[in-house]
Amino acid sequence: MRDNLIKKKVIIERIRKSNILILALNFLIIFCSCSNTKYLPANDKLYIGSVVHVIPDSGSITKKQKTALEKELKSLTRPRPNNKFLGARAKLWAYNIAGKPTGKGLRYLIKKSLGEPPVLFSRVDIKHNTDILKNRLENEGFFMPEVGAKVPDVKNKKVRVEYIIKLSRPYKIRKVIFPSKDSSINKLIYGTRGESFLRPGDQYNLDTLKKERERINSALKEEGLFYFTADQIIFKADSTAGDHQVDIYVQVKRRTPAKMIRVYTLNNIYVFADHTLFQDSFKTKPDTVIASGYYYIGNPKMFRPEIIVSSIYLEKDSAYNSDDYEITLNRLMRLGIYKFVNIKFKDLDSTKKTGKLDTYIYLTPLPTKSVKLDFRLVSKSDNFSGPLVNVSLKDRNVFHGAETLTFNVNGSIETILTGKGHGLTSSTIGGDIELAIPRFITPFVTINPPTKFVPKTQFTIGFQKLIEVQYYNLNTYNFSAGYKWNQTDRIVHVLNPIVINFLKLGSTSSLFDTILKNNISLKRSFATQFIIGSYYSYTYSTLAIQNRKFDFYFNGTVDAAGNAIGLIQSAFKHYDESIDHPYTIFGEPYSQYVLGTIDLRNYLNITKEDRLVTRFFAGVGVPYGNSTTLPFIKEFFTGGNNSVRAFQTGFLGPGSYKLPPNPSPSIFIDQVGDMKLEGNIEYRFPISGILKGAIFTDAGNIWLMHNDTSRPGGKFNINTFYKEIAVGSGVGLRFDASYFVLRFDLAFPLRRPYPTEGNYWVINQIRPLDPVWRNNNLVLNIGIGYPF
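Predicted structure:
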């Protein structure tokens, strides 16, 4: 009975607090609304936007199409009203309360940075808006729409304009008539009809006609019509063809100049391989050499001619082709040795039906050698942040075949800035040598795909020393050989058939030695070992494409080690490898595992600056044979500023494992796993200038593939893993200067991977005003760049 009374009191108290909050928000909204009209000019009103009502003929469009059309048309009306947040025009309110500041004090800052001037009704041109709406409707096949507007009675000095649109059924394409094959140009256009964007039954749309014109123009350029332009294509629409149907005739302008419909072929091709911007000549020079049919002008000892001309896809006596031109331009530019690439054509003024073009390719080299000092602030998934310095020496033509040889020396000092690991320090020092060859180097076969992308064969050898000041030094030696190439603008492949890493633990502290002694799994992951295998990565991304409503990113990797060498050794040695009796190479054991990851991200661009981002990450590594654990550098971490931000790195997982009240210092080392699942959702929005905000929720955990007695509950179980998903939420501030982003994310847990007082969810325990709750639950993450 007593418990029931207590519960009722708690519920009543929560309702009371909720009502107070609701009343406060309502008061704030009403106050802002009143303030926003108080300072308007005497004879003007506040414009609060438009409403579009579409009244279609019965059955002409669906309810969903009607809603989408109203939303589209509303977006065309101008001006835009003042922005609203939680129902209130906060920026307008800030502008008004700042008054008329005279200097650059606080009120001036509020008015200029946080404020937004009122959008007045006197600025609204209703006739212009109705004309815009009518024009858009006719372009989309709604011919002769009735567009009207009205201004309802003014209330509280606020005006919203209503646009009323009456529509008949949209016109649809009945037939598309391409020109007859009575001339060479018409024959070419007729031959492209199979790829047409205009299809019978589709709704008439002006944008589709424009796309069709560009399509035809591109197709003709590929057939040698060097001078042809898209505006020579016209469309005639017959709207009397049937009941709300239209026939579209595709035609070429009658007065199209003769040279625009003439096929041009390429004559001589001249390559100026070390051109300077001060040279201007269509003439060959005495030191011209012939390379694969091209006139190569330049020092053949500087750039080997056969390498340069292998990137040229324009060929003598072939018809001009715009695709070949684009591929050549891109391939030469992406060799990485030229600052400018300029291709010019000279009309030989042939009087024949087939014209002739001489081609001049001017290549302006970059400096062969360069030195670059790169200073960055970095933040890692394990919560370490700090400065990194890299010195790079580059030779862009080391073997005179556009090969780039790069020497890198780098070092960093990082620390955990906030949380229970505050003050822990890590540093790295290392370097590498990378040779990038702009073509596929393969045995027995030559591969040179006709794309605008330059494939690269890459060789890298390097060394890195990781110094965890309180614990250990870890030396890593690495070598890799493989390929990187773009399949399209969106798809990138990386394939390294040979990847060799050698890990050797250096000096260790007595504390770390004790940690290894008590944790056999951790000791094995730090053991001296070779990692010999292969690596493949596939990336699909639309992030580089401008003005998209929806962007998508996917990266998948496969990392396998010890497979081939294990098969070879097992053919000659007759025992089963194990951790106690491993196969070795040069006297040291090597790792055997298969590891794969997927990283999937979606970006919904709500406005130019408002974005909703979702992310899903999954990774799993399976050790076998020589190995019972993954090497330390291959294991998964969770928590921290790029992961589940409500938990610090090392304080989440694996599985349902719960840390003791006073965890060992090794918490920052041994909380790793063989498997990881993670999901994130984040809403990003502008606040003022470079200051951005975010609201986010993260979920995820790590697991082990094998039992570990020191971390009970850490093994992955298909039947229970979903109970072990941790969830956290929070808010963020980001100072985004485009080239540099400083991020502060404040998060707290909503769900733990183990039950607390019989419940996994801890939402009902949130007490933001309680200092004990804040100390135990709030996690401040400081990061460089966006988390994903």
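Summary: DSSP finds 14 helices and 30 strands in the chain.
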